[in-house]
Amino acid sequence: MDSHIAPVDMKKAYRLLNHGPTVLVSGRYDGVDDVMAAAWSCALDFSPPKLTVVLDKATRTRALIEQTGTFVIQVPTVAQLQLTHDVGTVSLASDPDKLQRSAVKLFDIDGYDLPFVAGCSAWLACKVIPEPHIQQTYDLFIGEVVGAWADTRVFENGHWNFERADPALRSLHYIAGGQFYAIGEAMSAVVDPAVNA
Amino acid sequence: MDSHIAPVDMKKAYRLLNHGPTVLVSGRYDGVDDVMAAAWSCALDFSPPKLTVVLDKATRTRALIEQTGTFVIQVPTVAQLQLTHDVGTVSLASDPDKLQRSAVKLFDIDGYDLPFVAGCSAWLACKVIPEPHIQQTYDLFIGEVVGAWADTRVFENGHWNFERADPALRSLHYIAGGQFYAIGEAMSAVVDPAVNA
């Protein structure tokens, strides 16, 4: 595992997704790994941390996840713009070399039989909370986060540091047709201690 | 209605949320309007457009929405940073002057008995698709988008123009503790026509 990767306090794991980045979803079953991009993933709860992700029935990644009930949500970086686009447009079903062709490199984390995508800024290992009705009707999956890690060069002590980190580590926010935005400027609201009491 | 506000093609309405902005949720029932902030809202489907939003049981806005089954999701701007923070931290239950104190101005759109927040960049009028189990268990609501509008100075012809618009119109992406990021730089992946065929 890369020396920059460190576990994230589970109480702060929701912050890895709170700003709405486009993510990569990965799964593993029976010797097959797949990775797809998803703009439609969102935090759902603080503690234990939960998230939602929309997984189209046509995706091979969903088929893998349905076999094991486990998956990884990871936050790709500006350096992975093309990779993110490519794994979101090519299917493993039509191109068995998808991951290699998309320049995806995988790594392992001890204790998790899941494929983690190297070069991302954050990783959330998840367990599907089975909700068959919404999975079938809306392609909507609920995951409980069972492990969280981040690249300490851009997320440390429970906070993103996009404003100080290498710009190549910024998160991606997909629109359509290959068009993305990177995350931008940091800004703070005035916090009234009385209001938050 | 502000002269800059124009309807958005329903097939492109998902793009208003695709980049994961923090949103404002508003509801109206029996003469009461409320507005709250939500970082946990996400696109769910293209056509008809659907979305998800997490509404805590403690919020007054949820109580209004449960009465009518309708609500508005709107995308606040950098100019509304403090407003967004304030409506997300104060409850109408404890402060009846919440909206006034947060400098929220509402406007109407013909045909919708809902409070729209002035100064946002996009508005999605929604109808709750009742899913009582996930509403109760996860505070997760599914909405079908029944009307969509945007400020043409920042979203036109189905595309965001953050890179050319007034920076005050950028979307906000909340982390925690009053800390936000604005959306940043536009970037494009190389789109292979053969791959997308």
Automatic annotation (TrEMBL), chains A, B:
Q: A GO molecular-function term, please?
A: oxidoreductase activity, acting on the CH-NH group of donors, NAD or NADP as acceptor
* One Pfam family matching this protein: Flavin_Reduct
Reading the lineage from the top rank, the first entry is Bacteria
Q: What SMART domains is this protein classified in? A: Flavin_Reduct
Residue ranges constituting the Flavin reductase like domain according to the UniProt record:
15-157
Q: Which InterPro entries match?
A: Flavin_Rdtase-like_dom, Flavoredoxin, Split_barrel_FMN-bd
Q: Does the keyword Transmembrane apply?
A: no
* Keywords in alphabetical order: Flavoprotein
Q: Does the keyword field hold Flavoprotein?
A: yes
Known cofactor(s): FMN
Family of this protein: Belongs to the flavoredoxin family.
The protein here is known as Flavin reductase (DIM6/NTAB) family NADH-FMN oxidoreductase RutF
Q: Which organism is it from?
A: Paraburkholderia bryophila
Q: What is the lineage of its organism?
A: Bacteria, Pseudomonadati, Pseudomonadota, Betaproteobacteria, Burkholderiales
